[in-house]
């Protein structure tokens, strides 16, 4: 997966995860809806790929299906603008919350080889990159989860 497509898919997955967990703010929901609508308007089959991703945003297989659909559009300026808007909305939301520090918190990330993060659990974000992230080869994220803080009530 090329870096531009990986970025698009990872931002969509983050948006889908935040919405699915009920933690997305209105700005993130609106930006996600705008991005999704634009993609579906450009490539009809993208809607089915996004629906699969929404069921399991962490699934590498579902991310790969979506990557096939968005790759032909990756160079389009409007797509880059919409992805940046969603990314900023998610980042702004995270900054507003008093969240637990990420398991891995980096100023920037450049992965010249393959990047893989698997089987990790954290109270807050598993991986946070505050600056630019560049992936020159494959990106694989699997088995990532959040666990409730000690003493937090579980929903029945």
Tell me the strand order in the biggest sheet.
Answer: 1-4
Which range best describes the helical content: under 10%, 10-25%, 25-40%, 40-55%, 55-70% or over 70%? 40-55%
Shape assignment: globular
Q: Secondary-structure element order, as H and E?
A: HHHHHEEEEEE
Q: How would you briefly describe this protein structure?
A:
The protein has helices at 3-20, 26-42, 46-55, 60-70, 77-96, and strands at 104-106, 109-111, 115-122, 127-129, 133-135, 139-146. The strands form three sheets. It has a two-stranded parallel ribbon. The chain has a two-stranded parallel sheet with strand order 2-5. The chain has a two-stranded parallel ribbon with strand order 3-6. It is of the alpha/beta class and 156 residues long.
What does this structure look like?
The protein is an alpha/beta fold and 156 residues long. It has two domains: 1-97, no CATH class; 100-147, no CATH class. Helices cover 49% and strands 18% of the residues. The protein has five helices and six strands; from the N terminus they run αααααββββββ. The strands form three sheets. Strands 1-4 form a two-stranded parallel sheet. Strands 2-5 form a two-stranded parallel ribbon. Strands 3-6 form a two-stranded parallel ribbon. Helix 1 (3-20) crosses helix 2 (26-42), helix 1 (3-20) packs across helix 4 and helix 1 (3-20) crosses helix 5 (77-96). The protein is globular and about 35 Å long.
Mind sketching the topology for me?
Blueprint: H1 3-20, H2 26-42, H3 46-55, H4 60-70, H5 77-96, E1 104-106, E2 109-111, E3 115-122, E4 127-129, E5 133-135, E6 139-146
Parallel strand pairs: 1-4, 2-5, 3-6
Helix pairs in contact: 1-2, 1-3, 1-4, 1-5, 2-5, 3-4
